[in-house]
């Protein structure tokens, strides 16, 4: 692939990642908001929201962003490992910021930005790579 085409493909992939992830994040935030409004603690609410968004995000990234041909038996465990790191990073950032500010929305915005950056790198370099680890000798 020529450098110009490679750059265009990477920009397109990044935009698709942000679109799929943005939708999953919207579901995360909506879930968090509804749970907080119903009296659930902010940390539990963001954890539940992140879990709901996880399912939506996997499907979007596998099919739409990376158009992966990896079978789910390979891609899903990789995704869950990366998502586990992202989820932990999200919760740690949220907890630290929320503890310092008491502002759940601002705290989640910071946590979301941090986790998004880390998740993209993991997805691009590890999760949806074409060669499964079972095929490496």
Helicity range: over 70%
From the alpha-carbon coordinates, what is the Rg to the nearest angstrom?
16 Å
| Major beta sheet summary | none
- In round numbers, the mean pLDDT is 90
Name the structural class.
mainly alpha
Stretches with pLDDT under 50, minimum 5 residues: 132-137
Distance between the terminal alpha carbons, to the nearest Å?
27 Å
Counting DSSP H or I runs of 4 or more residues, the number of helices is: 4
SSE arrangement, N to C = HHHH
Shape: elongated
Number of domains: 1
Query: How many beta strands in the DSSP annotation?
Result: 0
> What fraction strand?
under 5%
Write a concise keyword list for the protein shown above:
mainly alpha, 137 residues, disordered C terminus
Q: Mind explaining what this structure looks like?
A:
This protein is mostly helical. The chain has one domain. Helices cover 82% and strands 0% of the residues. It has four helices and no strands. It has helices at 3-37, 42-65, 72-101, 104-127. The longest helix has 35 residues, at 3-37. The chain is elongated, with a radius of gyration of 16 Å.
């Amino acid at each position: 692939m020529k450098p110009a085409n490679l750059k265009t493909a990477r920009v397109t992939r990044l935009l698709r990642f942000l679109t799929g992830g943005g939708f999953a994040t919207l579901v995360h935030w909506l879930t968090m908001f509804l749970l907080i409004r119903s009296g659930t603690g902010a940390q539990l609410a963001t954890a539940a929201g992140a879990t709901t968004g996880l399912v939506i995000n996997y499907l979007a990234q596998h099919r739409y962003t990376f158009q992966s041909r990896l079978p789910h038996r390979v891609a899903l465990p990789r995704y869950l490992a990366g998502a586990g790191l992202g989820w932990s990073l999200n919760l740690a950032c949220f907890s630290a910021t929320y503890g310092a500010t008491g502002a759940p929305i601002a705290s989640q915005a910071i946590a979301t930005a941090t986790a998004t950056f880390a998740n993209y790198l993991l997805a691009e370099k590890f999760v949806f790579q074409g060669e499964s680890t079972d095929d490496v000798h």
